[in-house]
Amino acid sequence: MILYASYTRGARSLDALRASNFRLLVTPEYYRSRAPYWSDGSPAPYALDNGAYGCHKRGEPFNWPRFDALADGLGDGADWIVAPDILGGGLESLAMSVEWLKGWDRCPVLIAVQDGMRPLDVRPHLSPRVGIAVGGTTEFKEQTMVAWGRLAHEMGIHLHALRVNTLRRLKICRGAGVVSVDGSRASKFAEQEAALIKQWADALSAQQTLGVW
After folding, report:
1. Most buried one in 34, 65, 144, 208, CB count within 10 A?
2. For a pLDDT cut of 70, what percent of the chain falls above it?
3. Where are the domains of the chain?
4. Phi and psi (nearest 5°) for 93?
5. Is the dihedral of CA 138, 113, 184, 208 positive or negative?
6. Distances (CA, A) of 141 to 13, 59, 85, 148
């Protein structure tokens, strides 16, 4: 399982994340006109989130100017980018994501599935370059993870889980065949938590599983 941590600029935190083989997840709020880097100045591998969750927490509308700056500035080197979405927005969120990705061809895209979406709604928009990021509320995420795992496995696409910060949720992701996860816990408490989360992920990956298929 590939681990991403929210971007941080603290040298000790970056060192701890690098030592545990994390990649960085960059949001519009943390973009400062250059690609993310480790504490020694060397480039760090990264993916791009769209900032919708932060806007939702602050009670703000989606910030298109910030998102466009991030996508234009870092899109070419990203592992993937999460298309614009609406937290818990169902089919309205899906329409927003699909409309945006029509004009995007610089790196792979993940559609953030939200409360109210079903696999049959999302399937027509998936391709080798368009995968899934499981978002939405905690209840939706945990109840539907296996269904998204089945769809991703069937179509051979990338499956990512957003905001995974506990062993319990890592286990759910492992059982669903999730390829990558991200979380803020490893960044906020990197010196204490990064190695622990990596240990959890490695232990789960080593376990045999019957999978969800």
Report:
1. 144
2. 97
3. 2-206
4. -65, -45
5. positive
6. 28, 22, 15, 10
User: CA-CA distance, 200 to 205, in Å (whole number)?
Assistant: 9
Q: What are phi and psi of 113, to 5 degrees?
A: -80, 140
Per the CB < 8 A criterion, the answer to whether 146 and 119 are in contact is: no
- The beta strand positions in 85-147, using DSSP E, are 109-113, 130-134
As a whole number of angstroms, the distance between CA 63 and CA 186 comes to 26
Q: Cα–chain-centroid distance for residue 146?
A: 17
At 152, list the tokens.
């991703």
Decide yes or no: CATH 3.20.20.60 for domain 2-206: yes
104 three-class SS: coil
Distance CA 49, CA 187 (A): 15
pLDDT tens digit sequence for 52-104:
988 888 888 899 999 999 999 999 999 999 999 998 889 999 999 999 999 99
User: If you ran DSSP here, which 8-state letter would residue 1 be given?
Assistant: -
Q: How confident is the model at residue 209 (pLDDT cuts 50, 70, 90)?
A: low
Burial 5-37 (b: 16+ CB within 10 A, else e): bbbbeeeebbbbbbebebbbbbbbbbbeeebbe
Say whether pTM exceeds 0.85: yes
- What tens digit of pLDDT does each residue of 9-32 get? 889 999 999 999 999 999 998 888
